[in-house]
Amino acid sequence: MQTFYFHTQLDGKLTEDTTGCTLPDEEAARTKAVGYAKDFIAKTSDVDRTYFGVEVNDGRRTRCIVRAWLVVERR
What sign results for the dihedral spanned by CA atoms 31, 36, 38, 39? Predict the structure, then answer.
């Protein structure tokens, strides 16, 4: 098991994960980061041009970044 940190960014505001999460491997960490992005999109219904990113870090280096943009177009 390995500890991964999930630093999030919402429209330019970075929130660093100082606790981390113990997961079996990098693939599980990537899956968790994608889940964070899905949850963000599911909870956001009336936002225009919003950027959300999750950086997966193993304490030494960035392993992957999951990015999501939500654009709501109105008539």
Answer: positive
Q: What domain count does the chain have?
A: 1
Residue 75 lies in a domain: no
Contact yes or no for 20/5 (Cβ under 8 A): yes
Residue numbers of the chain with a pLDDT score lower than 50: none
Q: Which pLDDT value is given to residue 40?
A: 83
CB 7 within 8 A of CB 16: yes
The whole-angstrom separation of Cα 73 and Cα 15 is 28
* Residue 20 domain flag: yes
Q: Indicate the pTM of the whole model.
A: 0.85
In a domain, 32, yes or no: yes
Q: pLDDT per residue over 3-13, tens digit each? A: 999 999 987 89
> What is the rounded distance in angstroms from the CA atom of residue 61 to the CA atom of residue 5?
10
- Structural domain span for residue 60: 2-70
